[in-house]
Amino acid sequence: MFGKKQGAAELRALLKEDRILVAPGVFDGLSAKIAEAAGFEVLYISGGAISRGMGYPDIGLVTFTEMVKRLEEIRAVTTVPLVVDADTGYGNALNVIRTVQAYERAGAAALHLEDQVAPKRCGHYEGKEIISRQEMVQKIRAAVDARQDPNLIIIARTDARDVAGLDEAIARAHAYAEAGADMIFIESPASREEIERIAREVTEVPLLINMFWGGKTPLVPPADLQAMGYKLMIVPSDLQRAAIRAMQRAAAVLREHGNTATMVDEMASFKEREAVINAAAYKALEDRYLQG
Prior knowledge:
- This protein has 13 helices and 8 strands.
- With 292 residues, the chain is of the alpha/beta class.
- Helix 4 (64-77) packs parallel to helix 5.
- It folds into 2 domains: 8-236, Phosphoenolpyruvate-binding domains (TIM Barrel, Alpha-Beta Barrel), CATH 3.20.20.60; 244-289, no CATH class.
- An 8-stranded parallel barrel has the order 1-2-3-4-5-6-7-8, surrounded by 7 helices.
């Protein structure tokens, strides 16, 4: 609510700097405000994290309208640029047009589209399927043509590494860049050598990499990724996974003892909780506008 909203133009400027951007995955207003307060310059709105936040696995159950609504909620309470998961575009090239336009209106600075068959599944699950290279090229062209702001960043993600091998994934990356994608995201490289090869061979546009503990891709320090040439590193699930463990512990303690007094050092205080959501600023507005 407070502060100038930074969008696509600001993100493009950040991506031109000689460094890598790290974007934690967020899934609601609270997680987004916590991440922004920690100093992150870009946030990643993770479709998988939103799905899990709704109680579902990441297998394409969350709808286009649910994602747009969550994007609007996060945009309302944050100021930094938002990179948003758009899954497969929720259908064919015509669906992609509507998705891009809706995401842009809702405040996305960038969005990524993937070449999986719908309904998609988490990029680190087994059993993925991909559409043809040509169909995805057409979807990217539709996305590029659909944007109203030329600064909106269209990211093409390919899941071909797990399905058809790294050679096909890199071939698709070249085709997607030629079709107009502003950034390339090859999902789930399986080794540091593959990560290095992608950076060497895909040079037409900036590269995004998905980096989180426990997935198919080994962890590589951001400084090393920057040296390879990667420009954006997303960490989709770590904040949520930390929250899951903390909530499980609090629920167990509350169930056993009837209160959480034994774990107060692990919890935000009442004042700290209110500070996260900037309650004082809303109180100031009340005093200004609601006191006669």
